Amino acid sequence: DVQLVESGGGSVQAGGSLRLSCVASGLPHCRNDMSWYRQAPGKEREFDSGIDSDGSTSYADSVKGRFTISQDNAKNTLYLQMNSLKSEDTALYYCANVGLGYWGQGTQVTVS
Asked: Which end of the chain is more exposed for a tag (fewer CB within 10 A), N or C?
């Protein structure tokens, strides 16, 4: 079975930092493009950042320059380093392999 398990969320003051982690298990050993999405209260889930299996990254304009997505293939772990956090970053953050249809359960980030 495929599992994506996020961790690292929490409460932080504006301007602070958090690092989210997502441990993946059961994914096939082939091209795995991974993403972070987020869903704020009362809003649609939206793309945050993505990384291709060749390491190419992409970001939503709202987080560009503040967030960094990375992965450690040896640990099967996806990361999201979030700096200069703003109140509008408050959301439930999900890691996903959208192409294969796998999503984690989400980790809450609250910025006050």
From this structure: N
